[in-house]
Amino acid sequence: MKLENRMMIRRALITEKGSRIRAQGKVGNQYLFEVHPDVNKIQISQAVKAMFEVDVVKVRTMRYLGKLKRLGRFEGRRPRWKKAVVTLKPGQSIDIFDEV
Questions:
Q1: How many CB atoms lie under 10 A from the CB of residue 41?
Q2: pLDDT score for 25
């Protein structure tokens, strides 16, 4: 499967937990992204490196199934998604998170 970098990384996740992780000392320097469910860690690492011009040390991923939702007697499902925690080399940062 061949996707462009901007299609692999859907959006930056700016959450309370993500802010706490970034603010921690030696464990910090980690950033959260929502990524395409079919990409792997190597592709995520290459996409982050190409988009933000930083060096990636480690990538951890979590898969989430879509929640069941009901509207009256009809049942549907929200789309599945994947979250990536990207760790950068010490001293590097991604500017979009610093602006928030």
A1: 15
A2: 55
